[in-house]
Description:
The structure is a single chain. By secondary structure, the protein is α+β, with helices and mostly antiparallel strands. The protein folds into 3 domains: about 1-45, no CATH class; about 65-150, no CATH class; about 175-340, Glutaredoxin, CATH 3.40.30.10. About 60% of the residues lie in helices and about 10% in strands. It has 15 helices and 9 strands. Strands 3-5-4-8-9 form a 5-stranded mixed β-sheet. It has a two-stranded antiparallel ribbon with strand order 1-2. It has a two-stranded antiparallel ribbon with strand order 6-7. The radius of gyration is 27 Å and the shape is extended.
Amino acid sequence: MKKIxxxxxxxxxxxxxxLCGGGANETLATFDGGSxxxxxxxxxNEQEFYEIRQKEFQVRQQAAFESARxxxxxxxxxxxxxxxxxxxxxxxxxRRGAITEEAVQRFxxxxxxxxxxxxxxxxxRIRQQLVINQEKGARDAxxxxxxxxxxxxxxxxxxxxxxxxxxxDGKPFWGKADAKVVVTEFSDFECPYCRQMQxxxxxxxxxxxxxxxxxxxxxxxxxxxxxxxxxxxxxCAGKQNxxxxxxxxVFAIPYNGRSLDMSIGQLDRIAQNIGLNMPAYKQCQAxxxxxxxxxxxxxxxxxxxxxxxxxxxxxxxxxxxxxxxSYDALKEAIDKLLNS
Length: 340
């Protein structure tokens, strides 16, 4: 219910601002003894407002693109006194060729392992898809040529991602405590995408441990049954100052087919291998008072508040990082901030 109310508040606030021209001080609600302004609402939901504005920007951009294309097509068709649909068809015909049997076979051979069916069964479907691809390519080529001819450009201003004041006090981190660049990773030990990026994270750690602060935040997803117990166990390793030794070992557990063994027995073996005091670890891991789970759930609530929708989610200096999560891309983003 809380999420629905927040969403409705955000939509109402933006809609009110857009329709009435109100600014940050516009009053959205009043009550005896006080009021709520748009600034009040945005302050606590910056990321959600940004996501809605970004979506609005994308819709406007696409609509502007399509409207401009239609009008330019109309202008060109009018020049030669031809109906627009016939003009477009005739121009596209100049930009497409026949789909040959060789082209169909070539596509099949290139994608044979992914298709995993006999050629005879998929031949017609491949040809149909190639026709669709060619139609799109011809229309895109015509559009590109005419946009260049008519000096088309966008004048829309893309919304700026907010810089959030993330509170990471007391959270496990590696690197320099007072670093200029702070990376905050919301992660799930069972998430395959989180696991895939760990090799690159270790490369970054080796290169930037003296320059960057990398904070690890808990965000175990509900449908990953082994995640919460593993996050609790990692917290216990952290109480013995071996959080990242434990974390690295957990992320290194190999898949057996599609299954992943993060059982209590497996976690105990990791704890022993990194030299934990096992009686203290096991007492903490049992989490009889629920303190560990509560701490991790608090991390999750905080993540949801700042806009985490899945894992891994990364913020760099408080800005949601939405680029490729590869070593090269993250290195480029970090270097840019270090050198600024």
